[in-house]
Amino acid sequence: MTDFYDGSFYGRRKGKPLTPRQSTLMETDMPRLQLDPSVPAPADLASLFEAPVREVWLEVGFGGGEHLLHRARENPDVGIIGIEPFSTSMGKALVEVVDGGLKNVRLYDDDAVQILDWLPEASLSLAYQLYPDPWHKKRHWKRRFISPKNLDRYARALRPGSQFRFASDIDTYVDWTLRHIRDHEAFEWTAETADDWRQPWAGWPGTRYEAKALREGRVPRYLTFLRR
Q1: Which positions carry the signal peptide feature in this UniProt record (predicted)?
Q2: Which of 43, 85, 195, 203 is most buried (CB neighbours < 10 A)?
Q3: Residue 208 annotated as binding?
Q4: 77 is catalytic
């Protein structure tokens, strides 16, 4: 089992060019929404947000942003940090955040490790990692984000009693994640019945990637882990 990969856990960062609207917002609004791990994090993460929030959640690799934006809209009193290094996805989400007046979202467009190391200890009430890059080839498995070291990072940032939620349609990555969680003392899998990992969480909006997986015959799994 891979221990730790000292490199990036994502692939390419650029796809289609940003639209003029996205490019403008990247210049005008991204600077106020972008987290800056070069300065110390505030002791109270709630102070990061333009709206009063009672707790803070994290989504690593939000892709098209469907889930991130849905959770932010349905939970206006929760601060949500969204991380996504792919510029096209960030551009799309940024338009929705700005045009939707979402005051409870902060963003970061680089490696999630930098933010996990920056966050104060036990500062998160929930963390999501949904459909991460599975790095199919065995020689690339070391680039999978779920690893002992990154689980240490999640464990440090999450409050005891909180949840880490993971979704994937790739059986080998689901198995990989379960094995790593089994070997990590800070987490336990909460499933008691098959529906606990076959059915998505309450309020689940679906994502474009999930819809594609279903069209292609792959079955998503939804894993919930308790931070002890």
Answers
A1: none
A2: 85
A3: yes
A4: no
Q: CATH number for the 52-227 domain, one of 3.20.110.10, 3.30.420.40, 3.40.50.970, 3.40.50.150?
A: 3.40.50.150
Query: Residue 192 annotated as binding?
Result: no
Residue 171 marked in a binding site: no
Q: What percent of the chain has pLDDT over 70?
A: 93
SS (H, E, C) the chain: CCCCCCCCCCCCCCCCCCCHHHHHHHHHCHHHHECCCCCCCCCCHHHHCCCCCCEEEEEECCCCCHHHHHHHHHCCCEEEEEECCCHHHHHHHHHHHHHCCCCCEEEECCCHHHHHHHCCCCCEEEEEEECCCCCCCHHHHHHCCCCHHHHHHHHHHEEEEEEEEEEECCHHHHHHHHHHHHCCCCEEECCCCCHHHHCCCCCCCCCHHHHHHHHCCCCCEEEEEEEC
Active-site hit among 36, 44, 109, 133? 133
228 marked as part of a ligand binding site: no
- Label residue 1 by pLDDT band (50, 70, 90): very low
pLDDT at 138: 80
